[in-house]
What does this fold into?
Amino acid sequence: MPAKGPWYDSFGGSFIAETLSPPVAELNESYERIIASESFQQRYQALLKHYVGRQTPLTLAENFSRHLGVKAYLKREDLAHTGAHKINNALGQALLAQAMGKRRVVAETGAGQHGVATAAACALLGIECVIYMGLRDMQRQALNVQRMRLMGATVVPAEGGSQTLKDAINDALRDWVAHADTTYYLLGSALGPHPYPAIVRYFQSVIGKEARQQFAALEDGALPDAVVACVGGGSNAIGLFSAFIDEPQVKLCGVEAAGQGEASGLHSIRFGDSGQSRLGVLQGCQSYVLQDEHGQIMETHSIAPGLDYAMVGPEHAQLRDNGRAQYLQATDEEAIDALKLLSRCEGIIPALESAHAVAGAIKLAKRLPAGARIIINISGRGDKDMETISRLVADTVQEGEANESH
Ligand SMILES: *Cc1c(COP(=O)(O)O)cnc(C)c1O
It folds into this structure.
């Protein structure tokens, strides 16, 4: 199918099979009207407050700031229900599905975080929920599979291909096409065919709106000098950036997962220099995609499962190419070091994804004048990652114990 706009300059669009045209058109026709309606807004805002627990705090990290040499505030999406920002979008789209008269929601999940948030929103609203997940991912993330099932979702293994996220996406889309009259497809990041990037941005923009107001209240009406967020597909970052894009004095800084380093080939850097990332089409939209010389999607790697994705959302591609935002990278090791530092300084264990934002902030701080003020988005909490973390920091813990016994 020919791609149709609107575009984020040369990014975005709607590259979909003919069979997907009717449901995407239906979504396009209904979402703006529904989102603008007073009844929808009342319901959504009330649930954000009483179910998700918003607004989330903006916490001045005083001890960590001393390490950085700049004044750092943390936007605490780790305190949102289900432990990350994903619930803002899952709940918003589940309400949208209900308003469109859909009785059933399908979604795919990689590490399981989006699946858990979707299962929670559907349980709350009484909507049937089917989550597609690669068989390998189900084995690696067994706890999240249990959480989804406890909340009443059906988790269906994707057994084709590499048995990971890509295959789960294919199965979820097939399900959607086959049951479009009753079913809503709930996408988890600022990706996919139009209007999904716009819908996800809208539901995550609450992060930026709150952060801007909270910062102004604490800092005499000022704007921050920079805002920092990790970028997988890009939803938590675009949610934070959206409140500051029109304020050119505020630096926007996204942080990608460099895995074991760009040269190793084991990374998720879509904005790198290696030439492995080029313009491509994946999941219905055009943006930078990690691919080999034949255009095959590359295997990606990150210690943070939520950043382990071959494509970046189209608006980030635009913001990078027009220079409005800058994108840094943090390796697995830098993220772990940042996670340990923030945990020890502040008593806050960030998710491994969010630890990339913290590591990026440490790099950015070196280029900012003393006294600069920044906001770092803590997109989620580290509880889900404790197994990975404890494997990696076991050495440190043992060292500490050994010292004590001397
Ligand atoms: C999924 C996830 C991310 C990455 O997704 P974005 O769409 O880039 O925000 C980041 N942090 C956490 C905690 C996540 O669960």
Remarks:
- Residues 196-218 form the longest helix (23 residues).
- Residues 64 and 341 are 8 Å apart (CA to CA).
